[in-house]
Write a structure and sequence with these properties.
Blueprint lengths: L15 E3 L5 H14 L1 E4 L5 E2 L3 E4 L6 E2 L23 H12 L13 H11 E4 L5 E2 L6 E4 L7 E2 L8 H10 L2 E4 L4 E4 L20 E2 L24 E2 L2 H10 L26 H11 L5 E5 L6 H8 L2 H6 E6 L5 H7 L5 H17 L2 E7 L7 H12 L7 E4 L15 H12 L9 E4 L10 E2 L2 E2 L4 H5 L6 E5 L2 E2 L3 H13 L4 E7 L5 E7 L14 H5 L1 E2 L7 H13 L4 E5 L4 H8 L12 E4 L17 H13 L6 E5 L15 H8 L3 E4 L7
Parallel strand pairs: 14-15, 15-16, 16-17, 17-18, 26-27, 26-28, 28-29
Antiparallel strand pairs: 1-11, 2-3, 2-8, 4-5, 4-6, 6-7, 8-9, 10-11, 12-13, 19-21, 20-25, 21-22, 21-23, 23-24
Helix pairs in contact: 1-2, 3-4, 5-6, 7-10
Length: about 675
Amino acid sequence: MATLISDPNFVSYIDEIHAQPQKNVKYHNKLISSILRLTQFFDNSNNIIVPSYFRVKNSSSIIPLSPEIPSHYNAATQAEILFSQDVPIVSVLSDFLCVNDKEISKSNQKVTWNNVINALLNEVILYNVDKKIIKPQSIANIKSCFINEKETSTNNNNQYDLSHTLGQYFQQYFSIDFAHKTAKLNNREYLKINASTAQRAITPFVFNNCKQGCRFCYVDRGLSAIKYPHNWCRKLEDIDKILEDYDMKEGKSHPILRFAMMDWEPTEHPQFFEILQKIAHIAPTQQIPIVTHGGALTQELLSKIADDEILKKNVLFQVSLNSANVFYRHKLMPGAKLKEHQTAIKSIELMDKMKINFDVSIVAATNIIPMSDIIETIKYVDNFTPHSYIRVALPTATKHHNPKLLRTKEELCEIDNIITSLRPEIKAPIITTVALENRSGLNAIIEEVIPNSAADFAGIQSGDEIINIDGHKIRSRTEANLVLSRAWYQKKQTIAVDIKKNNGTFQTYNISQMLERNNPRMAGERAVGLFGMLIHDDVDFGIFEKIAELQNKHNLKYPHIFTGKVIEPFFEDAISKLENNEKVTNLQLNAVENKYFGGNVSIAGLLTFGDLYDRFNELKAQKQKMDSIFISQSMLSRGGFDLKGIHINEFMAQCGIPIFAIKARTGSI
C-alpha cells in the first residue's frame, strides 16, 4: 500500500491520501490494530489498561498487537513516499479506504473518537498480555493519541457498526472519494497530534540528496525506517502552504518558532534562495539556522544573500567544515568533488567579508585525519568571526561503520581534553559535543563565553560555576539554561547571577539582557544565544515532577526509567537531590545498551524499542517489580514511532504495561 502525502514533515498539513485497493480481509485486522495502537484505555480508578491482543467476535483467531517490521522498512519500497509515520491518522484512514469500497452517508451528529471505540468494542474482544479477556465494562475512559480530544467515557452502546461510525468520523475531517480511494483534508486545524515531540523548527525542504558520503554519518547508512526517493525535494508551492501555517501574526505557531533547515542538504534545493526569501518575508525578525556541508555556498549565492538586508541579518549557516585542508576533507567526505571542498573552505572567508553569520562544526575523527589538522582547522576558522562558536563533535560510530572508527570512552575524553585546552589561545568559543562522557556532576559550569555578549560585558568568564540565578538555586546545567530562558521571555532588564569562581570565591553579576534583545540568534540556542554563555544540558529536574504526577494519577507503584548510558550517572546524582514534589516512589533507573546501532553510540535519542525490549526481558527474568516504563521522547518521531518504524503503543502492547514518553523542557532526557 502506498500512502502519499504532499507534506510528510508538517504534522497538521495533509494534502491528499491515496490508498491502493486491497483485499478487505487483509486490511480489516490491520485497521483494528491501528485503532487500538493509537488509543489509551483507563478503568474507573484511572489505571491504564493495556490491550496486547484482540479477536473479532465472529472469528476464532487472536491477533497480536506486538510490533511488526513496517512494509516501508524493506529496501524494495524506497521508491515510494511513505510518510504515515508522522501523522498516525493517515495510517488509519488509509487502512479504512482499503477496507471500505462504498460511500457512507454523512450525519449531522458529531462523531467523536469515543464513538469509534464504542463501535469497536461491540465487534472486538480485547486481551491483555497474558491473553486474559479485558471486560468491556472495565474500560471507563479512553484517550486518543493523535486527535486533540479530551478523555471521554465509554458506554459500549453505539448504535452503528465500526465501519459506519469510522466512516462518519473521517468525513468530518476529509473529503473522501471512495471510488478512487482518495481523501483530502478539509481543514488543517482539525488534526493535532499529542503523542509526539514538539515541532519547534520547520525542516521540510529536502531529503536524501546529500552526496558527501561522510564516513562518520549514521544517517547515510540507510538505518532510518523512513525511506525517501533519491534526490527528492518538495515543490516551492508546497512550501508556501507550510509557511502559511507558521504565520505568527495569526497565532498558529509554537511560541518559540525557528525556521531551521536541517534536512540532509538544504542548499541543494534548486530554489534554495527563493525559500530563504519566503521565510524572511514570513518572519523578518527570526533567525534561520541552516546546517550545510558548505559545498554549495558559492560567491554568487552568498552575494545574493548579502544584498538582501533581512537575509543578511537572519541567516546563520552552520557549516560542517571538518577540515580546512582539501586533502583531509576529501578523506572524511569522499562523495564531494574537489571544487565543492574548495568552495566550502573559501565560504568561511567570504561570509566573514560579507558579514553573513556563520558557525563551523568539525568532527574530530582522529582515526581518519590527524589531530594536528583538527587544530589547524580550528585556527583557520578563528582567523575569521564565527557567529557563536566553533563546534567540535567527538567521533562516535555504529556497528554499521568501519570498526576502525570506534573510539573508547578514554579516547573520546582525551580528544575532548585536547580540544578544550585550546580555549585560552582561540578567540572564538569552542564547544565539544557529545562531551558528557568527560563531565562529572550536575554543576552548572560555564564552558565558554561568547565575545561581546551580555555575559561577556558583565565580566563572567569561562570556568565560572552558576550557583543561583535571581534567587533560584541551580542544581544542574539544564536548570541554568531554563531559568535564564525564562528570565529572557519575562523580559527582565537585569538578571542577578551568583557565581563561584575558580579560586573558590563567590561573586554576583548583574546581566543586562537588553544587549541581546534585538539579536535574532535567540530562540533555540538557549543560554548560548540569549546571554552568550555556553552551558551543556544534562538533567531537567522537571521530568521527575512529571513522573511523580503520573505516578499519582495512574496509581503506579514500580516505575522504571529507560535511558541512554551517557546520562545515567547524571540521573543518579539528580535522584539524590529531588525535592518533595519531584520524588517518585520506588523509581528505578536503567541504562539501555544500544544494540540496534551498536558501536559507541549510547544516547537515548538513538535507542529503539528493540533495545528497550531486550532490557525489559532482562529485568523480567530477574523478577524485578515493574508496572510502568518512562522513556525519552527524543527517541520518537512526532507520530510516536522509533527509528525502526515501531510505534510506542506497539511496544506497550508487547510489554503489557504502560509506557510513557517524557519530554524534557530542553527536548530530551
